Amino acid sequence: MKKFKVMDLFAGAGGLSNGFEQTGRFEVKVAVEINENARKTYEMNHHKDVISFEDITKLRYTDENAERIGEFCDIDVVIGGPPCQGFSNANRQQNTLISSNNNLVKEYLRAIEEIRPIAFVMENVKSMESEKHKFFMSEGDEVELIKLEIEPVEEHIKIGRSTYYSANLRNFLMNAYEQRTDLTPFMINKDLFSKLNTLLKHAKKQSTKDLLHFIEKETNYKFFMKVINKHWLNQHREYWNSLYQLDWADLGETLKNLMSKKTEEIASYADKLENIIEAQKVIRKISEVIENRVLLFDIEENQYDIEIIIKSFNVFNYIKRKFSSLGYALNEDKYIFNAAHYGVAQERSRLVLMGIRGTCLKTEDVITPEPLFHNREEYNKIYDAIGDLENISPGVNVKDDEMDKTSHRPLLDSPLNDYLNNIEKIYNHVRTESREVALKRFQALKEGQNFHNLDESLKTTYTDHSRTQNTIYRRLAYNEPSDTVLNARKSMWVHPVIDRAISIREAARLQSFQDSYKFCGPKDSQYQQIGNAVPPLLARAVAEGILLSLGEEVKENIREILLPKLVVENSLKERVRSEVKSLRVKV
Description:
Elements: E1 4-9, H1 15-22, E2 26-32, H2 36-45, E3 51-53, E4 77-80, H3 89-93, H4 102-115, E5 119-125, E6 134-136, H5 141-147, E7 153-161, H6 166-179, H7 190-203, H8 208-216, H9 218-229, H10 242-259, H11 266-291, E8 298-301, E9 305-314, H12 315-325, E10 328-330, E11 336-338, E12 349-357, H13 382-386, E13 402-404, H14 415-420, E14 425-427, H15 436-444, H16 504-510, H17 523-532, H18 536-549, H19 558-562, H20 564-586
Parallel strand pairs: 1-2, 1-4, 2-3, 4-5
Antiparallel strand pairs: 5-12, 6-9, 7-9, 8-9, 10-12, 11-12, 13-14
Helix pairs in contact: 1-18, 6-11, 7-11, 9-10, 10-11
């Protein structure tokens, strides 16, 4: 029986391709992943014939005649989850205007356009469909947007506060945009910019003691002394304005005085520092616009802010129209999938776009996988995923991660546990070491509780614990499905009944990775790889939908694996109905 050849883009640790290969009908030929540890994990768990690449932007799929070349010649299916931040409030909060990941979505689209596979799967964050998830219109987009009948929307984006530099700065930056000038020489380096930003926060408190305390910290003092001794004026390679240059020189002198505890100028120092930082923010934002070839229609200054006028368009709408223009049928009506519906012991909603080339579609519409479970009461629980590991104490050395299941007791009547527990050994059953404060927190938490349930005396290491997310220090509850698995180490997830962090293997089980799937790299990397992955069971369900849409047979589906009793009962009922019908015909 034919196996479809697969290319996995942004492959990560390989959860998506693992689910596809479990069907027995797909074989990965090419994988692309830039993260070294994730790539090692992928290569360890897939056959040696997989050709792996690091940088998708360097791949060439076709020759000058648009004919597929090399290892891309026989690719049938392309899968993958391109990172995509789009244009959102989150980017602006991180002091960046444009995410560099946006181009990676277009790289995925390029692969589909040039290879023209018979099918593809694109997995992404649920929020991709949001109206707030947008791309800025850049050079080259205009013609395509007209072709796709997409009308871009005008946006006014605040990029900084108005200062006494603003009018001159606006003229300089508009000219820089028109000339495509590299603005790097006019910017201070990221480390200095960050330190001065923090320094401003302390200066604005109008507390000389607080400001001096910040400057006198050993790391800060050494940093500022190094900067001043290396010639303060040379922190810019070029100056865009003479007044700005004079203010920068004064700022250096004042900082030197503050380091000598001369604090007479603290009020004017804060104002001058804020003006320079705001100018730097604006220059950085326009630099991003130039680097990303975004179309800039104007820079406006009002009483309080500086704004840019650009145009944007919705990411998901663009992607769907692009795929449709290439001749693919899509799962237009159902594209948000909850992993818990497909047997994963975790509530994790993801956007999965399935595409079948129109000439290859054998069904009326693209077939999406039917849920096995429909509500929280039916979902597999955390106990189903990790309950059998309770008596196997995890290690702490990531290099010594192979254990025998000598004290292992498989769970009875748990198809998910049977599925996960597929080998005699256990790998990656390693946890993070916990300090005394963390252990006290573990001991104080009951199942289902988190950091906010702790006594105030156990929250003192957090500056503002009211802003701590509910997933931090969550003690998992055996009788519930897991929340979305991210990096369980950073989140400090706690075992349901043992006072310790959950292990890498337990996190992998919550993601539905079978025990035979091994992870490589340092602890934090392994936890992160797992958190970033597509749950293999969800991937397998999607793969089955692709097969059915292509008119292909599915040998053993996940319903038969995770609901064996129901399948048998339905089979018996069907047989009885068939026999009764046969008897009636004879009579």
